[in-house]
Amino acid sequence: MERIRLRVHDAMLTRRDGLTQAKVARQIGMSRDSLSRALNGQRKFSARELGELSKMLEVSVDWLISGAPATDGTTRLPRHHPTEILASPVDAYREVGLFTPALPRLEAGVGIETAASAAAEKLSGAVGREFVRDLPAAIEAAYGIGVFVLSQEQLFDARAMHSGEINYIMVRATGSWYQGNLVLARELGVLLCGRDTETGSNGVIAAGWAKRFADALLMPEAYIREINWDRQTPRELAGFLWNMGVSAQTLMRRLDALSVPRGPALVHADEGTLQLLLWQYPGALKNHRAGAYRGPRIPADLFAAHLAGMRQGLVDGSSLAWLLDTPLTDL
């Protein structure tokens, strides 16, 4: 964090147009006080702020974070630099020499339901049938994919990334655990569908396939068709949503896609998933799964490796502090 603020300060000083803190703060949407405190080390820059700074100062986000130059040896910002995508997780892996296992690739033409069923079996084999209780841990255990929940501002809800021998998924912190499950399952589909999402790309090609994969993974077709939705009570509906880790809106979309009538209990879904759950299960928000995506979160093996590296003087802890959104002194 100390080095980031110094690089921001240096980039401001080297501009020839005489940038003032007030002008910088105004153009990137910060208050002057927030910028001043960030430059003095009293607060950290958010992901959004670093992205805006990189565009304004015409330097790459990678350089601001790590000091790494661009491929041409400069710090200049590439014309199409995806400033909303930060390479901090992959850099954190490389700092301590960790890699993730190679991912199994789905055969060409495999159906979404078949792919989702295979993924569910793999997740269940790693942590048990109720893998949705902690989907990030289940994905790490089954596939070795690192799952990060970042509390800094992000311009995406979740993003799957592939860089060399490292695969990971970043999820934006949210208090809606069923939304976190959905976007995490979607990005798992992006990585498994055979279309690599390289660091810096947006994964648009696989997006439609991955959204349907997520629905099928969280709500298996066979189970959906076993339920008599016409006779389902509101309490049974709330139990389904809780056990499957999905929202009422996601369930309705899945039923419509399978041409299954919604049933009268889903009328209560108009009140919202949270209201429906709390109505039937008042203690739901106290359950640990309700805070699964409130963040921050990083893979346990990466956390342990960075702590060991700090003890041995191999890393300075700045990457870990940024990912955990905590002052370096607290580590």
TrEMBL record:
GO terms for molecular function: DNA binding. Gene3D superfamilies: lambda repressor-like DNA-binding domains. Pfam families: HTH_3. PROSITE patterns: HTH_CROC1. Coiled coil: none annotated. Residues 18-64 form the HTH cro/C1-type domain. SUPFAM superfamilies: lambda repressor-like DNA-binding domains. InterPro entries: Cro/C1-type_HTH, Lambda_DNA-bd_dom_sf, Rad_response_metalloprotease. This is Helix-turn-helix protein. It comes from Paeniglutamicibacter gangotriensis Lz1y.
